[in-house]
Amino acid sequence: MAGSSAVIFLPDDSSKTGSARPLMLSRIMGSPLLSWLVSSLAARGVARFFLICHDRWLEEARACFPSGVELTAANSMDVPDLLHVFLSTAEETDGETVVVTGPAVLVAPDMAAQADVIPAPSCVYHVGRQALMDALDERCVFLDFLRQRGKPFTDREGVYSLRGPEELAAWQPILNRQHLHDLVRAGVEIWDYQNCYVDPTVRVGRGSVLMPGVILRGDTAVGENCVIGPNALLENVTLGDGCTVNASQLYDAKVGGGAIVGPFAYVRPGTVIGDNVKIGDFVEIKNSTIGDGTKVPHLTYVGDSDVGKSVNFGCGTAICNYDGVKKHRTTIGDGVFLGCNTNLVAPVQVGDRAFTAAGSTITDNVPPQALGIARARQANKRDWVKRRLNKR
């Protein structure tokens, strides 16, 4: 595809299609069609985009463009002057510009043959950059100019225009499979193409493995040599190199290199997990920072907390962060050992290398290197069972 610049019109055809939003913002696997289109154009060398969009949809449309591309957006009133500036600042070698006037998908020609759709008249053209600038100077009718001077891309080149939302279902498996093929060519191992779903905005590093049941969404970036799945969902998550995520869900979080998450862990928004951390089964982390080397192995809730390095959470530990009115933060120092079934009632601090006894409910700060004990003394009532049985 010639040219490193693209002009995309986003028509508001919602009244025509009966949908709640324009067709180009209708979703395939949770990502707008525009995201898939932009991703395909970027993969073909387009790095500069000019978007014409109604203000009503501008914020949603902007989110479809990855941070690494140059984007200029305008509404219908600003188009001629801003578009002229956009074209004039392109590289001298950029002789042609891609123009998209409606909903479309771009796929490899061999993939397009699998689509169960009848080709529609193309809404994707390439046109000489200078000719387009001259047409803007002459105030020509844009669509008339494209039909006269532009060259339409066709289905033979893997470019399809969409007539309506009913065609989205036919394109879902095609677009997903093509994206998976692109990942494989970049060094990613995929076990099951039928049960692995990856948004076009997701990045996966070389040497990583995606197992069956993986769903990667939004602004997710997976490092190199990671193993994701089986049955894992990541949304807006950054993973460092060498991570493992097994049968878990992570949202709006950052995870350091070498971390192990799962199985059956739930990492909620606002969480930052350090390097070589273990988040085990039935663990929930929310709005917390977990230091390097810390182990949260199982049956634990950590909410609104700042946890140091090399901390060990015993089974059944809970951060009691909510008092029924407000949520409070808990601070846990480096090298702390929390005994099984410890409750930390926020706000509370546990100093470096301190211990808590199993079964304690800690309501006051624990000094560094101290042992915090907060439980009743055990009392054994001798012959209690015998007396109880005799009363029957």
Q: Approximately how much beta-strand content do the residues carry?
A: 25-35%
Number of helices: 9
Stretches with pLDDT under 50, minimum 5 residues: none
Tell me the radius of gyration: 28 Å
Shape type: elongated
Largest sheet: 19 strands, parallel
Give the overall pLDDT as a whole number. Answer: 91
**Helix coverage percent of residues?**
10-25%
Distance between the termini: 89 Å
Number of strands: 36
What class would the helix/strand composition place it in? alpha/beta
Q: Could you explain the architecture of this structure?
A:
Helix content is 20%, strand content 32%. It contains 9 helices and 36 strands. It has a 19-stranded parallel sheet that branches. A hairpin with a 2-residue loop joins β2 (27-28) and β3 (31-32). α4 (79-88) runs antiparallel to α6 (129-137). The longest helix is centred in the middle third of the chain and has 18 residues, at 168-185. 40% of the residues are buried.
For the structure shown, list the relevant keywords.
392 residues; alpha/beta; 19-stranded parallel sheet; six-stranded mixed sheet; 9 helices; 36 strands; 32% strand
Q: How would you summarize what this structure contains?
A:
The chain is α/β, with parallel strands linked by helices and 392 residues long.
